[in-house]
Batch of 2 targets.
Target 1
Amino acid sequence: MKPVTLATLREMKAKGEKIACLTAYDYSFARLLDGAGMDLIMVGDSLGMVMQGHDSTLPVSVADMVYHARCAARGIQRALFVVDLPFMSYQQSPEQALMNAGRLMRKGGAQVVKLEGGAPMVPTVKFLTERGIPVCAHVGLTPQSVHQLGGYKVQGREEKAAEQIRKDAKALEAAGAGLIVLEAVPAALAKAISQDLTIPTIGIGAGADCDGQILVLQDMLGLSPRTPKFVKNFMDGAGSIEQAVKNYVAAVKSRAFPGPEHTY
Ligand code: KIV
């Protein structure tokens, strides 16, 4: 079994093959997802909400991320493994980002680190990638900025805001990002960005034209108290968690998910 790399994902984009991604935070689920054919597994800082019960991702520490990443990493043989830099672990300076990215990679087994933000993060992405740290960027709805954004709201609806997100995505790619998450943006904007960039875009609430799709595991298993419009409950009628995850992979690959009802 050939491990998935950033190069594999770029080839998939070039061939028009959709990239299936989910979050996982422990060994058992990471192993199940990996066995079901997931291309990318992410330990997101969403663990603050779905594992720890907080109402945002802000309380999550680097130590929390390292702990969950180390557990999940043991379950993965094939998928590319991405781990989030949590709130305030990289915003201070590129050097702070480098130190904490190093911890996620050395202690947590991360293969790629993810950070949130547009233009202000460009120097940090450049600094990390020039030093051999693969980076996944994240624009649109950036949950670590929930209080600045005034809630978990769709981003880029107005033309000016859409143009800024488009420019940010281009700049992050030029800075060396190997992947980019587009969260809660109109499908038309995500489509334009996906066509603009050579790196793969991974959408969450960003429509069917992204190069890949990601959801929070607990959301797609119907375990979360509130789920946004872009989530589909794959447990409905699946009979087992394993089957639900396989159905998700198949739905992403065949472009059956996301449908218009999951799209802004
Ligand atoms: O924190 C997270 O899990 C994420 C993904 C859902 C993209 O950022």
Target 2
Amino acid sequence: MQIFLDDRMVDESEAMVSVYDHGFLYGDGIYETMRAYDGVVFRIDEHLERLERSASLIRLKTPGRKYIAGAVLQTLQCNHLRDAYIRVTLSRGKGPIGLDPALCRRPTLVVIAEPFHPYPGKLYEDGVFMVISSVIRNHVRAINPMIKSLNFLNNILAKAEAKDRGAYEAIMLNADGHVTEGTVCNIFFVIDDILCTPSVGAGILDGITRDIVINLAGVLGLTVREGLFSPRDIFGASEVFFTNTTAEVMPVSQIDDTVYHVGSITGRLRAVYRDEVEKYVRAKRSNDVL
Ligand code: PLP
């Protein structure tokens, strides 16, 4: 594959970052994951906006949205990709050993794009198994989960524990015992026909898919409640699903010992999310033609 590195396309075999890069030394940097459908990067503006926000929360100056958008499109084109997984990484850059961000003069920008491999259909039909992790989500005043940070050990430890327990994904609680999110996704559940999801105040990444699903639920006439929830609330739910850019809307069949059916609200939201993607792709296409 061809990789965008700093200011140009290079072959994967030559896409090297220094061992003195503070992204490598300290996990000092941020990233975004995007998905392209038929050559159109879905909600690219929102992803670039969030990248800027993450950057500002770690006091990192970015090359700007326009530049990064250009790098993303160039990476897709160079690799002749239409349905793709895209990863944008921006690290503090190369600098002497030491924590001071001022040691690094220029951030390192990397854009990787790969063919998108759809999740197995069976996962959407049957749902996935999740566990409540013993690993607590980062405290908002430690590493705010709103920062899409390269420092991902919090999530990696929860994921490893989930794997040990035979689960697909983990749900992390915050230090007060409230439900936050999965290691790479946001959580939704249905109680008495009300769509519930942890609020940003619980300490989560405000997912772009989450935001779309909340809006679509409103369009469908569903009541949405964002708030603080305990594991007991989620165990009492009739349906559970998770959301993220790559999986979209994924049903959950079990959390710890509690089993759920793949319900009709999940199915409807999954379908309208797909429609939303198609509408977006069509609109971008017709803009390009005009
Ligand atoms: N929460 C975490 C911790 C994530 O890493 C992600 C995505 O990778 C999400 C939530 C979902 O965000 P989005 O819908 O923007 O992909």
